[in-house]
Design goal:
The chain is 35% helix and 21% strand. The chain is α/β, with parallel strands linked by helices. The protein folds into two domains: 2-231, Nucleotidyltransferase, domain 5 (2-Layer Sandwich); 245-418 and 450-483, Nucleotidyltransferase, domain 5 (2-Layer Sandwich). Strands 1, 2, 3, 5, 13, 14 and 15 form a seven-stranded mixed beta sheet that branches. Helix 10 (235-243) crosses helix 15 (425-438) and helix 13 crosses helix 14 (401-411). The longest helix is centred in the C-terminal third of the chain and has 25 residues, at 359-383. The chain is globular, with a radius of gyration of 22 Å.
Length: 483
């Protein structure tokens, strides 16, 4: 038996095939772009996701013969996207993505509506799904009237795979339509954004069966066995499954385009006033909380692009040992910010520049700014009672030893580094497909990776970075406080 994990990312799709023991067999990838028709807008054509999946599977079939013994599929996807379908299942407009900020006014209006935070467990952020639909209602009324179903990106792939409108709890928790504590659609939340329950997909747990692969696709893919499609997960819940973060005290920091600090929780403890996200986990009766900054490696990528070097060239010039905090400060809010500021309009900037400022000074400032942004999330999570004594580090930014040492020192906790191999959202979604198709216990399938290294705080620099962090916060009085 083999199992397929699909990670539908913002810039590309990754398909991972694993064997009956959960060990990776091989992976294929396809990439696609993001459209920005206006400032602050971010859209994709769902047809590109389908084309990427078809091409990735075709390559996998040709490369890995064991694909023919496929028994289960799990899909992880970038959260919050609004894929709008008509009566016949047709796509009505490009999907509005998670990093689209056009609906900031609608988000503020919904966030202030009676009972919304209490039921959803979260602030209504501009990137969430509900305010996107309010924007469509206000600006594209003809399309709004035609909406028969609203699907998140992963749920749209589930629809393509099974022919059924079905979504999982973890992904749906980021819509502002789900009662996150009860794990059910809320009529009050739907009413607040002029939506109906019949426009929502059927809900299942991420590790439960969502349906069976359509006969047409099974034949096209050369499969003779019935293939179970799991409920799947939002990308961060799937990454938590891939890294084995199910229980209280387990979590990870992801240095990707955005920066995510995630803590698994054994109960529902919302704290929307902190701007921490409180979502259902992909496994029943578990939740997770996370702080999110929108520009993590994106900040370093931006600097590298304007300087004309690669991110790795910039960080390599700093060495591995952390220097004392620099005089140049960087505000890492190139695309706005979520935790803890909830401000779609705030933007980045440097202060402390002089004629003597060097490329290395700018690089250090960017890395420090991102580390301080993650410290904001760390403190916000601590305010909810989450205890993170060790954190697993993943994502492209974790390749920089300097950055890891800096973050460890700023947070005051060790960062653990997994050995080489798969441990991300694609593996997590494959594990969900395995559980759904075999009935295996979640704890027997979802386990932490082997840790090959640990980066500990630089105690000699801890006091200096503690002071620098508080100076960072005090230096920007324009940052609005959470209401």
């Amino acid at each position: 038996m083999t199992f397929l994990g699909i990670d539908l990312g913002t810039s590309g799709l990754r398909a991972l095939l694993v064997d009956a023991d959960g060990a990776p067999i091989g992976a294929t990838e396809r990439h696609y772009g993001v459209e920005h028709p206006h400032p602050g807008w971010s859209e994709q054509d769902p047809a590109n996701w389908i084309a990427a999946l078809g091409a990735a599977v075709d390559e996998m079939r040709e490369t890995y013969p064991s694909f023919a013994d496929l028994r289960g599929i799990g899909v992880a996807g970038h959260m919050h996207g609004a894929t709008l379908l008509g009566e016949a299942g047709e796509v009505l407009r490009p999907c509005i993505l998670w990093n689209d900020t056009r609906s900031h006014a609608e988000a503020t209006e919904l966030d202030q509506a009676d009972g919304v935070r209490a039921l959803s467990g979260n602030i209504v952020f501009p990137g969430f799904t509900a305010p996107k639909l309010q924007w469509v209602r206000n600006n594209e009324p003809d399309i709004f009237r035609k909406i028969a179903k609203v699907l998140l990106p992963a749920a749209y792939l589930n629809y393509y795979l099974t022919g059924d409108y079905v979504a999982d709890m973890s992904d749906s928790a980021g819509t502002s339509w789900l009662d996150v504590g009860k794990r059910a659609w809320s009529d009050r939340l739907l009413e607040a954004s002029h939506m109906r329950r019949d426009q929502m997909p059927r809900l299942v747990e991420g590790s439960d069966a969502a349906g069976t692969l359509r006969n047409e696709l099974a034949q096209q893919w050369g499969l003779s066995n019935a293939v179970t499609v799991a409920g799947g997960a939002g990308d961060n819940a799937a990454a938590a499954c891939g890294i084995g973060a199910l229980d209280e005290g387990q979590g990870f920091v992801s240095l990707g385009t955005s920066g995510v600090l995630l803590a698994a929780r054994d109960g529902y403890r919302p704290a929307p006033e902190t701007a921490v996200h409180t979502f259902c986990h992909a496994i029943p009766d578990r939740w997770y909380q996370m702080g999110v900054m929108l520009s993590a490696t994106d900040s370093l990528n931006w600097l590298a692009r304007i300087i004309g070097k690669t991110p790795s060239e910039l960080t390599a010039a700093l060495g591995d040992s952390v220097h004392a905090p620099g005089k140049v400060r960087f505000l890492p809010y190139l695309s706005g910010e979520r935790t803890p500021h909830n401000d779609a309009e705030i933007r980045g900037g440097f202060t402390g520049l002089s004629t003597g400022t060097t490329q290395e000074d700018l690089t250090r400032a960017v890395l420090e700014g991102v580390a301080f942004g993650l410290r904001d999330s760390f403190d916000a999570l601590a305010a909810t009672g989450a205890k993170m004594e060790k954190i697993i580090a993943i994502g492209g930014g974790s390749a920089s030893r300097y950055w890891l040492q800096l973050i460890s020192t700023t947070l005051g906790v060790p960062l653990e580094l997994p050995g080489s191999g798969e441990f991300g959202a694609a593996l997590g979604s494959a594990r969900l497909g395995m559980i759904a198709s075999t009935g295996a216990a979640s704890e027997s399938v979802i386990s932490p990776p082997d840790i090959h290294d640990e980066v500990r705080p630089d105690k000699e620099q801890s006091a200096a970075f503690e002071g620098a962090y508080h100076a960072f916060r005090a230096a920007y009085p324009g940052i609005k406080a959470i209401q």
